Predict the 3D structure of the following.
Amino acid sequence: MTEINELFIDTATTFRLGQEAAASVLFAKCIDQLALALQQPKIAPQLMAIMPQLLNAQEQRNWFGLADTLEYEILPLLMPTT
């Protein structure tokens, strides 16, 4: 498991456990990774399409939706294909 994989899964799990403060710290690190990923032309359009969903979940304090978006929609885009 890569560091990015662990980060996104840990963040999602922490949000699902209701540990909002700890999850927010991890989420900030996820945002840093997303900023880097948005510089990659192959995945930037797909990430940009998901970002409104992610930001809406955060704004609505929908931690389960945010967790699901991180783990099941964004993380697969960030993982290298073999």
The two ends are 14 Å apart (CA to CA). The longest helix spans residues 20-37. The chain has one domain: 3-78.
